[in-house]
Design a protein that fits this description.
This protein is an alpha+beta fold and 218 residues long. It is 28% helix and 31% strand. It has helices at 9-54, 85-89, 111-119, and strands spanning 92-100, 103-106, 124-129, 133-137, 140-152, 165-179, 182-197.
Length: 218
């Protein structure tokens, strides 16, 4: 007596392809979150080296002492950031849409600067993502994951001293698209659920859509 036939080669190949897509999409999410922290660290290191070579007069005296006026995006350290066009192109499609609490951006051009301006409000950050929900369907995939993001103010003591920080909890939702260079985000939206600590200077409100429980757009 023979048992029931197992899956054919075609079914196995399809399942391997699906699992490969899921792994690639999870890697895309990991690279994005790690890149936010690592890019900021690279920017801070470059800025510190430049300052040390120029003068010793830029000592920190408060949480916002390194961030300029603190009245708008991009008020943190200047050039030399880890956020650049190549980094953005490794993550986003040409028509990417980014909707974040402090603003939105359309298109790959300028996406690196948009994220750099947001991130350079902080001395250090730590983005912690949950296991992601990844649903590939052909050349598109719905992705979502929960996030806790911790943002340390400029001038805050180094560990093990307590940090002065702003922390948010929320959920990323988005769509990724398969491109000739691999999976890339075509849309990312961060919805805020809660926050604690002191927000950065100049930020007194967030985009209302980042507080909504559902994204009505297709």
């Amino acid at each position: 007596m023979t048992g029931s036939p197992g899956p054919g080669l075609g079914e196995l190949a399809a399942e391997v392809a699906r699992l490969s897509d899921i792994a690639a999409l999870n890697h895309l999410i990991d690279r994005y979150l790690a890149g936010l922290d690592e890019g900021l660290a690279s920017s801070a290191s470059t800025s510190a080296s430049t300052s040390a070579a120029g003068s010793d007069s830029g000592s920190d005296s408060g949480f916002d002492s390194d961030s300029g006026s603190g009245s708008g995006l991009g008020s943190g350290p200047g050039s030399g950031s880890g956020f650049d066009a190549a980094w953005a192109a490794s993550l986003f499609t040409e028509d990417v849409e980014l909707l974040f609490p402090v603003g939105s951006h359309q298109g790959l051009t300028g996406a690196d600067g948009f994220l750099r301006e947001i991130m350079e409000r902080w001395g250090r950050t730590h983005h912690h993502g949950s296991l992601a929900s990844v649903e590939p369907d052909g050349d598109l995939a719905a992705v979502s994951w929960s996030l806790i993001a911790s943002h340390v103010h400029f001038g805050s003591p180094l560990p093990p001293q307590p940090s002065a920080y702003f922390q948010i909890g929320g959920r990323f939702t988005g769509v990724a698209r398969r491109t000739p260079d691999g999976w890339r985000f075509a849309r990312l939206r961060l919805r805020i659920v809660w926050s604690t600590g002191s927000p950065p200077g100049g930020v007194t409100e967030v985009d209302a859509r980042t507080l909504e429980a559902a994204d009505s757009r297709p």
